[in-house]
Amino acid sequence: TKTIREALEEVIPVKQAQLKKLVEHLLGGMRGLKAMLWEASVLDPIEGIEFHNKTIPQCQQELPPAAGGKEIIAESMLWLLLTGKVPTEAEVRQLSRELAEKGELPEYVEKFIDSLPPTLHPMTQLGMGVAALNHESKFQAAYESGIKKTEYWTYTLEDSINLLARLPTLAARIYRNVYNPGQPIPAINKDLDLVGNYVNQLGFGENKDLTEYLRLYIAIHGDHEGGNASAHTAHLVGSTLSDPYLSYAAALYALAGPLHGLANQEVLRWQLNMQKEIGGEVTHENIKEFLWRTLKSGQVVPGYGHGVLRNPDPRFMALQQFCDTRPDLLADPVIQLVKKTYEVAPDVLKEHGKTKNPYPNVDAASGCVLYHYGLTQFKYYTVIFGVSRALGCVTQLVWARALGLPIERPKSLSMEAIEKLIK
Ligand code: FAM
């Protein structure tokens, strides 16, 4: 009698051989497959992301910043994503106030988060906290009471606003628990924007440059059309009429993968290793050697490559531009290393010849500025991405319910069925 392991050991090589034969017919990760409606943004391989046809520089020009600030804020971006319109300053201030008023966490969530071991990855904690917030879901309660389909979107919007309001408070509490246990968390300031409050609660409120950086960061990470793993997950889970909390909790666990959002944590770890190995004098030559060592050891170069983009990511360019205007950032050795890596990595990746896109994505730049400003715990970086990506995901949830989009259910095929198709 065979064990289940022995039975599998026999089947796997047969399937592997079958797959090899079929490989050119399989849709590798559904790349390029047009299968989803997503209104808020479209990703062009060359031009990069456009939010309702507006590029990042256009958004920087047109969207109202925080009082006394220059960068795009989360509220302006959310308004644009949801409505397709540029908000007025008064509209943005009103939205900031609404979010601030709804930002407190329920006590049971505070207690739950405080009970988690500080060694549990911050992204795992964030997803758990967001899922627990579904206790509060207005959509779920209304669904149970028997609402009409045409009313779904209003309850989805209400949950979405509550989720967006609470995400930074939750994320800041996780930061406090993991890195500064016992430290008090400042109360939400009703006159401040969402990210202004988030930075305050993280304990960096005095640093106006970091606040501006995170405003820009959170606005431009907000949406990247629908096919990326986190956005698609939120959409898929939401299509079952799971409420926005559960849908977004699922999305966060897609974001937590190293090929997706966790790449920003990985980039900084990798760049710091590079710095340690290279030592004093950083030249293009020794960066190249380090890149080849990474590639030859079978690892990916984190922060490079993309499923859709075939040019440097305009989000990377916007974050680089932020550095270019500040002498303290330009003088930072890690920021210089990121810049120098960008000067050589595309050629190395072209020569390596595997990746379809040898250029940097947003994660190549996002962590080094945080590091410079003293937010040095890079296991936390994806949480910041997670605070941001909710903007696009909840926008889609509201529109999916408003348009009555159906449950997602693509067709899968076995290898035999594919073979029959291509014979
Ligand atoms: N370094 C080394 N090899 C790479 C590479 C990189 N940066 N990017 C792609 N490749 C390889 C890839 O592993 C694949 O190899 P195999 O044929 O051996 O499987 C080959 O090149 C073709 O891949 P592709 O078609 O160019 O890329 P995919 O669309 O399959 O994957 C990424 C896209 C982003 C997952 C991939 O480029 C990658 O792993 N990059 C590094 C991780 C990263 O930075 N992720 C963040 C992406 C980001 F924008 C985000 O989600 N935040």
Bound molecules: alpha-fluoro-amidocarboxymethyldethia coenzyme a complex
- Total count of strands: 2
How much is the average pLDDT?
94
Within CATH, the superfamily of the largest domain carries the name: Citrate Synthase, domain 1
Structural class by SSE content: mainly alpha
User: β content, as a range?
Assistant: under 5%
Report the CATH architecture of the largest domain. Orthogonal Bundle
Could you give a short account of the major beta sheet? 2 strands, antiparallel
Report low-confidence residues grouped into runs of 5 or more.
none
Under CATH at level 1, the class of the largest domain stands as Mainly Alpha
Number of domain units? 2
Structure description:
With 423 residues, the chain is mostly helical. It has 2 domains: 47-261 and 378-402, Citrate Synthase, domain 1 (Orthogonal Bundle), CATH 1.10.580; 266-372, Cytochrome P450-Terp, domain 2 (Cytochrome p450-Terp, domain 2, Orthogonal Bundle). It contains 20 helices and 2 strands. The chain has helices at 4-22, 56-62, 74-83, 89-101, 107-114, 122-132, 138-145, 152-179, 194-202, 208-220, 229-238, 244-255, 263-278, 284-296, 314-324, 327-330, 333-352, 363-372, 381-402, 415-422, and strands spanning 41-44, 48-51. The protein has a two-stranded antiparallel sheet with strand order 1-2. Helix 6 (122-132) packs antiparallel against helix 12 (244-255), helix 7 runs antiparallel to helix 8 and helix 11 (229-238) runs antiparallel to helix 12. Belongs to the citrate synthase family. Its main location: mitochondrion.
